[in-house]
Amino acid sequence: MDPEALAVAVLDSLLHRFRGLKRQGDGALAQCGEPDLKWRPDLESNSVLVIVQHLHGNMQSRWTNFLTADGDKPDRDRDGEFVERIGLSHDEILRLWEEGWTCLLSAIEALAPNDLLREVRIRGQALTAIDAIERQLAHVGGHVGQIVWIAKYRKGASWSTLSISRGQSRQYTPSPRD
User: Residue 164: what pLDDT?
Assistant: First the structure.
């Protein structure tokens, strides 16, 4: 496989995985009412709202001018992302979610194959673009997992699974991209 075809395949794969994480988060958020979004298991844990605030701030900072500016923007208030903003409605929380994802996905969609090996910086640390993207994939994946866990815990028996239902593995036939 030639290097450009490999880079195109890598970008396609990364976008597919990010979109899959967004779908999981969308599915969990769709099952949450406003009280569910603000609930947290204990005082040291984050609510879905706080996780969404953090992801929004992180995605906006990392993906705005991804190739040309440090991924930790000077105007970002990371510590403030972990303080629940009082009075946010369900719709406002979902707006933050969508804004963050739009920034991330648009930035990756705009990348050319030869951008993957370009140097980017996060907090002054030099990384290749592909390393920064994979770092973000792991970070977002962890937080989407937290959102799903909280939503599933809150919904209990009324939870609608986001993957293969228990006892249904033999009937599941994956799509070519799963």
Answer: 73
